[in-house]
Amino acid sequence: MPLIAPSVLAADFANLQAETQMLNASTADWIHVDIMDGVFVPNISFGLPVTAAIAKHATKPLDVHLMIQQPERYLEAFRDAGANVLSVHYEACPHLHRTLQQIKDLGCKAGIALNPHTPVSLLSDILPMADVVCLMSVNPGFGGQKFIEHTYAKVRALKAMIQEAGCATLIEIDGGVGQGNAKALVEAGADVLVAGSSVFAAANPAAAIEALKNI
């Protein structure tokens, strides 16, 4: 049974407290928070104050995905804002080992996010340091995009690497996840499913989460 991490990027920003409380009452496992700086990705979402506001009402771990340049400058601030999992992009971290160590020293789970064009083979030397690898299954920056089919092959390849390394790294899928592909992703080896539009655009978001949980 996968962990479900609804992305509040797709939530009603004018009612974030109510949306967070809905997630608290649902079968969601984590709350996924997408941070975008308009530099690393071509969009700006929200930052530290909104993360802290969500954390104030959340009873589930905050899975904070930093789609930003120089994430190492903000790790402590996001931990203090309520992050439990902090994922940084491989493409944004020239000193990735140091950055992951910094996250662990802050007491958070350390995640590596990969853009669709970045091969999982590049993680072979760093994989044991990662608690989570987040595979982007759309190009990061905007919600509601179409799922990239090559993701299945990346999941299978990454799962084989994790098993060969003997580590407990979780595979997270972010982008275009819904009822149509969740089962195939889990069968390929995914452990955590990030769902935005497929949850928050549903007539009953809590039921949509439950359906993903029980695929």
Automatic annotation (TrEMBL):
A Pfam family the protein falls into: Ribul_P_3_epim
Catalytic activity: D-ribulose 5-phosphate = D-xylulose 5-phosphate
Cofactor: Co(2+); a divalent metal cation; Fe(2+); Mn(2+)
Binding-site list for a divalent metal cation: H32, D34, H65, D174
Pathway(s) annotated for this protein in UniProt: Carbohydrate degradation
Co-factor binding comment: Binds 1 divalent metal cation per subunit.
Cellular-component GO terms for this entry: cytoplasm
Binding site for substrate: S7, H65, G141, F142, G143, G144, D174, G175, G176, G196, S197
Record carries keyword DNA damage: no
Enzyme class: isomerase
Active site location: D34 (proton acceptor), D174 (proton donor)
Single GO MF descriptor: metal ion binding
Tagged with keyword Manganese: yes
Stored PROSITE patterns: RIBUL_P_3_EPIMER_1, RIBUL_P_3_EPIMER_2
Family stated for the protein in its record: Belongs to the ribulose-phosphate 3-epimerase family.
Function: Catalyzes the reversible epimerization of D-ribulose 5-phosphate to D-xylulose 5-phosphate.
Listed name of the protein: Ribulose-phosphate 3-epimerase
Lineage, broadest ranks: Bacteria, Pseudomonadati, Bacteroidota, Cytophagia, Cytophagales
This protein's encoding gene: rpe
